[in-house]
Each structure stands twice: as structure tokens, then as C-alpha cells.
Amino acid sequence: MTGKEKLVKFLNKKLKDAKEKLEEISKEIAFINAAVRAIKEKETVEPNLIDGIEKDFSYHLCPDQYVGKIRHKDNWQKFYKRTDIFKDQTSETKITITEDKILLLILESPHTDEFDKNGEPIGPANGDTGCMIREHIATIFSKYTNYHLILMNAIPFQCSLGVAPKHFRDGVFAKAWGNNAIGKNFFEDRLGKLLEKLIGKNVVIVNACTQGDNKKSPLYCQVCKSIVSVLENYSDEKDGEEYPVEFYHIHHPSSWTYGKTTLSIDKAGVSESSYDFKKDKKDKKYTKCYGKIIYKLNK
After folding, report:
1. Which of 3, 64, 290, 299 has the highest local Cβ count within 10 Å?
2. Where do the domains of the chain lie?
3. Which DSSP state fits 244?
4. Do residues 149 and 76 make contact, with C-beta atoms less than 8 angstroms apart?
């Protein structure tokens, strides 16, 4: 390689790094703008919330992560293997997933525990939500205890702004969801790219997004429609074999127990009629299993 070629290669690497930083900044700006628009639509903001936001707010992206094989709670005290799925702020997969059985758990957005004291991201479900997942997922999804778990946020930014979700989360989520750079399109792009890497594997998708405060337009339903949109364009065949994707909707992990009663999978979902999807019953793409929607591709 000549001196000129080496220099061009070096500068092209720096150019790529600069573009990645620019994309990161543009997404952070888009998220902050979404938050501003949501706040402007509120009638009032309680003054005592300002201190909490200044203390715990983060505008950084919380990465989707592989966190290890599903275990029973006694052997799973924390997510030991937090590995980012995508490169920086992009939808380009960063790791090679060698495991052949994957359970993808989708949440709505990170809160305070998902970031360190400096606002830098740690990963999804790092606080109470993660504790509930580790404590109950092997019981609720008992038929998938030998699967490996990936955690993904539909919007990987802190829609709560660092205070109790009832104040801002839903409004910020709605504004962010409508932004192509950080919302619906970004989620569908990441999910689609991940599924491309998982073709030939046994995949279970679990939508565990919360309902939010607006029962007429629940957060989980918006996310559910996007998941189905991605699955419609997903090829489930490899080397002549079919690998259908199973798709569940379940309550948010914070609701996986009621008192001493553990929520079981046959009580965890919502009925098929709760979704406003256009379905052709003859193609049997939608089937019932354990009382929830299971999406199986039969192309």
C-alpha cells in the first residue's frame, strides 16, 4: 500500500467516525425536540419536577442488548452478559448471534436506572424491571427456558425525562414515535435488521410495552402494529426449512406479579379482538396460543 493509499484509508476512517458522531447527535437533538413539543402541549408543569429532571434526565440512546440465557431466578441475580446489538446509533448489527433459540423482549422506553449518574446508558431493564424479568420469565415462559434473551426498547430514549412516568412519558413517547429518526421507523428498521440476522433460528417476540395512561391509544398497541408490519416482510425460510416467529403480547414486567400470585402465560395477554389489525382468516397467519396472539408466518 502506497503512502497516498494509507493516508486516504486513514482519513476515510476518520470520516466514518465523524458521520457516526453526527448521526448520534442528530438523534439526540430529535429526542430533545420531541420532549420540548410534548411539554409545550401540557397545560402546566409542576415546579417540583424540575429538580428531578435536572438530576436524572438523560438524552442519550439506551442500546438494545443481548443479556444471556434465560435462567430461573435463583441462578440469575443480574444480567451478566450485556452486549450491544447494534453499532452506535445505527441499525447495523454489531454482534454475531450464534445461539439458535432467541426470545426478544420489547419494552417501551428506558427510565432512570438504565443510565448511570452521568447520564450515560447502561442498558435496558437495569432496575426493578430487570429484577422482575429475572425472577419470573422462566416461570411465565416455561417452554422457553433454554432460549437466549435480547432486550429492546421501542424508543431507546428516556421518554419519562427522569421523573415518574405519569408526568411526561406518554406525551414524549407519542412525539418521539412520530419522528422517523428515533421513533416508529427507527424501531422497525432495528427489528427488521435483527430478524434478518436471526433467520434460521427459533425466534419468539414478546411485546411487553406498557399500556400507558391513554386506554384509547395504548402504547403497546402502537408497538404491536409495527411488529406485525415488520413480520409481514420477514422471510422465515432458510435452506428449505421454515422457522416461524412466535409473537406474544404480555403485560409490562412491573405487573408480572400480583401479591403472591405469579402471573402465568395463559393470563398474561390480551384477546385477539383488542387489536385493530386487518386479517384474512383464511391464510391462518394469526393463531391463538395460551390465549394470546401468536404470529406465525406461512408463506
Report:
1. 64
2. 3-295
3. P
4. no
